[in-house]
Amino acid sequence: MADRYSQVxxxxxxxxxxxxxxxxxxxxxxxxxxxxxxxxxxxxxxGAPAGxxxxxxxxxxxSIKAERAGAEGKAKALxxxxxxxxxxxxxxxxxxxxxxxxxRLQRSxxxxxxxxPPEEAGSIPAQIAQRALEGFTRSLGKEIGGKGSxxxxxxxxxxxxxxxxxxxxxxxxxxxxxxxGQVVRVGKGVSAMPKIDWDxxxxxKIALVTGASRGIGAAIANTLARDGAEVVGLDIPQMSADLxxxxxxxxxxxxxxxxxxxxxxxxxxAELSDxxxxxxxxxxxxxxxxxxxxxxxxxxxxxxINLSSEERINDELLGKKLLNxxxxxxxxxxxxxxxxxxxxxxxxxxxxxxxxxxEAMAPELAKRKATINAVAPGFIETQMxxxxxxxxxxxxxxxxxxxxGGLPVDVAETIAWFASPASxxxxxxxxxxxxxxxxxx
Length: 441
Ligand SMILES: NC(=O)c1ccc[n+]([C@@H]2O[C@H](COP(=O)([O-])OP(=O)(O)OC[C@H]3O[C@@H](n4cnc5c(N)ncnc54)[C@H](O)[C@@H]3O)[C@@H](O)[C@H]2O)c1
Hints:
The protein has about 450 residues and is of the alpha/beta class. It has two domains: about 40-185, Rossmann fold; about 205-435, NAD(P)-binding Rossmann-like Domain (Rossmann fold, 3-Layer(aba) Sandwich). Helices cover about 40% and strands about 15% of the residues. It is built from 15 helices and twelve strands. It has helices at about 5-10, 10-20, 55-65, 90-100, 125-145, 165-170, 215-225, 240-250, 265-270, 295-320, 335-340, 345-365, 385, 390-400, 410-420; strands at about 45, 75-80, 105-115, 150-155, 180-185, 205-210, 230-235, 255, 275-280, 325-330, 370-375, 430-435. β7 (about 230-235), α8 (about 240-250) and β8 (about 255) form a beta-alpha-beta unit. It is globular. The chain starts with a helix and ends in an 8-residue tail after the last strand. The model has no long low-confidence stretch (mean pLDDT about 95). The protein binds nicotinamide-adenine-dinucleotide.
């Protein structure tokens, strides 16, 4: 779905002029539709000598029936195993692989660089070299974003080679259309890897989604239902009709309650008395004012909704042992929580707090054989962003490598990757869904 600016600058005559003026010309991004292959074109895969992921990647490419790219011709994805890079002189392996291949990458192409978490690289020179991969990948993302392509760095812990599949599938596929320049860590796995039906990974699972009646929450509910989950949508009683429309269309259930109500954790726990597999804390609000004009009430209401109530719900569900084995908690942070934003001290504090929640709880959840991660959306086309004044709205859209806003489904697909039972090695990550926005980059 192209916004108005994209339509205008890509129209035949105006397009030529826009190009001459150097204006961004956003391309239409590939997005996933059911039944599509993971990657719809040839994949070129190689690695630096002594890499440890060759077998794992080859197995995954076979499992998704990926066509392998030959010595020439176009490629839809480029995957490079950099785990063997042991010092800075060997970083030239990146240049050797990508220099001849990057021009072969098709529109909405995918680049995935695989590395070892620097602190586990085994020596100081290896640690330095592995850390260097981050600057490389983020820069490459900026260079290829104009064609709707993305680049990510996935650090795979030694011993976690068998945990890569859900993450590599996500980053190769159009499901990650609006995610770029991200650094993700895959660890050993909090529980045994279950058998997965990749078309319906959430079959038999129960997923709670707060703020499910519209916007990003509705997209999360729909996407988790597509993946097979029974969705329990939650929203405030005033949104009853919209909430029911969402949950009834996907055969789900509704909870009508304000998450800040004193009895909300108990009510939610009672509704989920048979256990819950995925908890998505999506409900959130903005109450913008510069700090000099921020009364306590405005601050406190927002913090209650965006952060404190989420902590109480977690405590209740974990205290009553209602989060099932291989369970998932997913937070919805924001780019503002990373970069900060004028007029959003309250919002940015709450959303940075969501990242804190992920960092603080990840070790504890791992002990319970569960994971916690968060998405940090950038500019997403919703009713909230449609109401912004035109200046900040256009800046929000264009100041990113992909030069356009994302869609609610882009956030939802990222959450579905975290939620997958196969993502048992993905714990403690905050992943931006922001088209590699320049803000807070
Ligand atoms: N739209 C964006 O560009 C963007 C960017 C970054 C982060 N986010 C975050 O994504 C999430 C969803 O955003 P959206 O754009 O879809 O917003 P939205 O306003 O369209 O939807 C939020 C939903 O949460 C519900 N909600 C609010 N307060 C609640 C409460 N106390 N109890 C229960 N439900 C409550 C609302 O009724 C609404 O249905 C929010 O956490 C938001 O901060 C959005």
